[in-house]
């Protein structure tokens, strides 16, 4: 009939022990369907919502959280069941962003993997742990082809973050972050400046806006930087394979940062009096002049930056 998922009942929750069992059924009477009053269902198999939610609950109850994450958050390993309940409630907030319940289950699976003690937290390794080999392809297809409302998801997240840490004297921060890549087929990948190493490497580059206050810190928005070479004719086929929007035009990292800061300020979700950034943005006069009105900026500058004191008359 299949395999068990490797869970055991523990009170009102389920805990993962990893020992899967194969389930066999021996047919003693070929008339069993008639005797039991069960007829074959001609409809395609699908996962009912109630079963889907129970499966997600079982998944999140697996006590395999990364011990470093628990330590940084000041959480004892014995409190993992409380963390699971909190995580389930949090992820439920994003249900309106999905068009199908299966999408939410796949997203929850990957998030659980990111919080787990897996050494490599790639799509394949996450799927192999929680859904088996048959779950690798569906999780890959979810990230490649699945259409859910990411703007609604971002809005839900921003509203929650603002309610927790928003205050009048808050500070918007902008910075870049790079992700090393071995291949050449990921969207936006190229040999470019890799900030952590301070040299040119094959990587993807992103620009991120954060928000900080006396109550805490969190990321607000993000953009993938697309190198100018990706807009050349030699990348036509790769852009199609990566589903790059046809109307996307080249933007520098500073232009992406400026657009995000303006959008955040216009939304009014995050009250702020300051904008902070490093010298990659602080030495760009056009970027500084594009900052939202009414904000002070606190920026780094390069060591060879020329500064001219104003002349008072």
UniProtKB/TrEMBL annotation:
Family annotation (InterPro entries): IS701-like, IS701-like_DDE_dom
Superkingdom of origin: Bacteria
Pfam families in the record: DDE_5 (PF13546)
Coiled coil: none
Ranges for domain Transposase IS701-like DDE: 95-310
Leader sequence residues: none
Protein name according to UniProt: Transposase
Source organism (scientific name): Ferviditalea candida
């Amino acid at each position: 009939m299949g395999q068990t998922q490797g869970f055991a009942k523990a009170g009102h929750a389920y805990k993962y022990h990893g020992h899967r069992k194969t389930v066999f059924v021996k047919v003693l009477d070929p008339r069993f369907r008639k005797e039991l009053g069960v007829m074959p269902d001609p409809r395609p198999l699908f996962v009912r919502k109630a079963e889907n939610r129970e499966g997600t609950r079982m998944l999140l109850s697996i006590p395999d959280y990364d011990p470093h994450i628990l330590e940084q958050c000041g959480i004892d390993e014995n409190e993992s069941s409380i963390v699971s309940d909190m995580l389930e409630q949090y992820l439920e907030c994003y249900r309106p962003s999905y068009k199908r319940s299966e999408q939410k289950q796949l997203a929850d699976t990957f998030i659980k993997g990111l919080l787990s003690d897996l050494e490599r937290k790639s799509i394949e390794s996450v799927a192999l742990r929680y859904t088996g080999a048959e779950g690798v392809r569906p999780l890959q297809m979810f990230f490649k082809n699945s259409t859910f409302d990411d703007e609604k998801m971002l809005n839900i997240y921003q509203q929650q973050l603002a309610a927790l840490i928003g205050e009048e004297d808050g500070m918007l921060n902008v910075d870049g972050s790079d992700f090393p890549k071995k291949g050449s087929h990921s969207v936006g990948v190229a040999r470019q400046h890799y900030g952590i190493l301070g040299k040119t490497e094959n990587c993807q580059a992103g620009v991120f806006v954060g928000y900080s206050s006396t109550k805490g810190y969190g990321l607000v928005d993000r953009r993938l930087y697309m190198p100018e070479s990706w807009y050349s004719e030699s990348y036509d086929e790769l852009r199609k394979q990566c589903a790059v929007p046809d109307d996307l035009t080249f933007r520098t990292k500073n232009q992406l940062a400026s657009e995000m800061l303006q959008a955040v300020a216009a939304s009014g979700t995050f009250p702020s009096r300051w904008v902070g950034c490093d010298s990659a943005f602080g030495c760009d006069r056009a970027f500084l002049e594009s900052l939202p009105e009414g904000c002070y900026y606190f920026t780094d500058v390069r060591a060879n930056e020329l500064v001219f004191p104003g002349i008072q008359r």
